[in-house]
């Protein structure tokens, strides 16, 4: 069996694809896996690092919304669809699994032309154009939120890295706190604005940090590799404030934390829900509003707080986050609500859909 994965560009498309690849290999070590990508995406680094074959095709950016520019897309796509077809023919692909982004639509159109079954995964609450179009060509559409509007949608969650999907936060708490030089017994706030950091979150946290410390809360703060580390004067007897450029062991960071302050990317929301870590979500104020939609279901379930970027301030953290961190019963209830909403088995469910699509195609 050979599966072609189409989900390049950003980590939000690539990480679920790689999690599926790992799950397919666990089920059948002989399965062939090829990832489609473009030379401008993160997949050029992430896919080879994980040991999977990568085939590059030309990038054709798609408009985020239906615009007059859509008329020019088929012509611009012709060459890249042909390149995708050649990969499917060479690998004798049994299925194309698309995750959205630049390479997904050429992958879907090439698969349709060649009669190869298609499975779609949509990570965001508001689906992208590629997956909207692709969903017309298949009955196998996996989504990350229960109220998705995509046709034929099945709620499975987002395939996660194994280190996250299998994480037992309580069992790893001591190891996580020791790894970052944190006190083993104090309530802990984890802060990160994603892989590049978020200046707004950084500024607000640095302003409120002394107040949190005086209230008995310690902080682990990933500021982003390009942002300057704040000067910290940890006074003797005060809970620590630990700024780091980035976190390469998110499993340990999640285990160390009692609550998180973060953006609301689909992968972040899925990971925090799966491991039962409550969060104060601050959706990115640009784009099409999808981050707010990503966070709303888990917040509605009681597993998090939601605040607009413009409303985030030291005073908001003092009034809303600090009372949670210093109330073990409320932390427990929010953690349980997040975990009940989250899905740890999305990778296995998506593997099942791949086998189902292939079996249905073979039956004709």
From TrEMBL:
Its main location: membrane. It is found in: Cell membrane. The keyword Magnesium does not apply. InterPro entries: GlcNAc_MurG (IPR006009), Glyco_trans_28_C (IPR007235), GlycoTrans_28_N (IPR004276). Residues 188-349 form the Glycosyl transferase family 28 C-terminal domain. Residues 3-139 form the Glycosyltransferase family 28 N-terminal domain. It is an enzyme of class 2 (transferase). GO terms for cellular component: plasma membrane. GO terms for biological process: carbohydrate metabolic process; cell division; cell wall organization; peptidoglycan biosynthetic process; regulation of cell shape. It is a peripheral membrane protein. Keywords: Cell cycle, Cell division, Cell membrane, Cell shape, Cell wall biogenesis/degradation, Glycosyltransferase, Membrane, Peptidoglycan synthesis, Transferase. SUPFAM superfamilies: UDP-Glycosyltransferase/glycogen phosphorylase. It catalyses: di-trans,octa-cis-undecaprenyl diphospho-N-acetyl-alpha-D-muramoyl-L-alanyl-D-glutamyl-meso-2,6-diaminopimeloyl-D-alanyl-D-alanine + UDP-N-acetyl-alpha-D-glucosamine = di-trans,octa-cis-undecaprenyl diphospho-[N-acetyl-alpha-D-glucosaminyl-(1->4)]-N-acetyl-alpha-D-muramoyl-L-alanyl-D-glutamyl-meso-2,6-diaminopimeloyl-D-alanyl-D-alanine + UDP + H(+). The keyword Transferase applies. GO terms for molecular function: UDP-N-acetyl-D-glucosamine:N-acetylmuramoyl-L-alanyl-D-glutamyl-meso-2,6-diaminopimelyl-D-alanyl-D-alanine-diphosphoundecaprenol 4-beta-N-acetylglucosaminlytransferase activity; undecaprenyldiphospho-muramoylpentapeptide beta-N-acetylglucosaminyltransferase activity. It holds the Pfam family Glyco_tran_28_C. UDP-N-acetyl-alpha-D-glucosamine binds at residues 10-12, 124, 161, 195, 291. Pathway: Cell wall biogenesis; peptidoglycan biosynthesis. Its EC number is 2.4.1.227. Belongs to the glycosyltransferase 28 family. MurG subfamily. HAMAP family: MurG. Cell wall formation. Catalyzes the transfer of a GlcNAc subunit on undecaprenyl-pyrophosphoryl-MurNAc-pentapeptide (lipid intermediate I) to form undecaprenyl-pyrophosphoryl-MurNAc-(pentapeptide)GlcNAc (lipid intermediate II). This is UDP-N-acetylglucosamine--N-acetylmuramyl-(pentapeptide) pyrophosphoryl-undecaprenol N-acetylglucosamine transferase.
């Amino acid at each position: 069996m050979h599966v072609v994965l189409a989900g390049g560009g950003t980590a939000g498309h690539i990480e679920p694809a790689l999690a599926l690849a790992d799950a397919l290999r666990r089920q059948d070590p002989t399965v062939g896996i090829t990832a489609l990508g473009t030379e401008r995406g993160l997949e050029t680094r992430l896919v080879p690092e994980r040991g999977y074959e990568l085939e590059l095709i030309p990038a054709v950016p798609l408009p985020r919304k239906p615009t007059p520019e859509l008329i020019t897309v088929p012509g611009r796509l012709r060459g890249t669809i042909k390149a995708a077809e050649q990969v499917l023919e060479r690998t004798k692909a049994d299925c194309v699994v698309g995750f959205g982004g630049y390479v997904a639509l050429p992958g879907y159109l090439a698969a349709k032309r060649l009669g190869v079954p298609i499975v779609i995964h949509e990570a965001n609450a508001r689906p992208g154009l590629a997956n909207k179009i692709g969903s017309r060509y298949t009955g196998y559409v996996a989504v990350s939120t229960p109220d998705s509007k995509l046709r034929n949608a099945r709620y499975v969650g987002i395939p996660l890295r194994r280190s996250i999907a299998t994480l037992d936060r309580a069992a790893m708490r001591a190891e996580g706190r020791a790894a970052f030089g944190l006190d083993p017994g104090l309530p802990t706030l984890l802060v990160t604005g994603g892989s590049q950091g978020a200046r707004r979150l950084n500024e607000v946290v640095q302003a409120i940090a002394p107040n949190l410390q005086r209230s008995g809360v310690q902080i682990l703060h990933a500021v982003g590799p390009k942002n300057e580390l704040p000067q910290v004067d940890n006074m003797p007897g005060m809970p620590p404030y630990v700024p780091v450029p980035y976190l390469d062991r998110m499993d340990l960071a999640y285990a160390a934390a009692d609550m998180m302050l973060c953006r609301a990317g689909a992968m972040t929301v899925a990971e925090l829900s799966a491991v039962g870590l409550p969060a104060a979500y601050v959706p990115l104020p640009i784009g099409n509003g999808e981050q707010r939609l990503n966070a709303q279901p888990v917040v509605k379930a009681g597993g998090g707080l939601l605040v607009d970027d413009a409303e985030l301030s030291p005073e908001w953290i003092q009034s809303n986050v600090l009372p949670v961190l210093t109330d073990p019963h409320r932390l427990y209830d929010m953690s349980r609500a997040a975990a009940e909403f989250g899905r740890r088995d999305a990778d296995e469910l998506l593997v099942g859909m791949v086998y189902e699509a292939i079996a249905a195609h073979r039956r004709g």
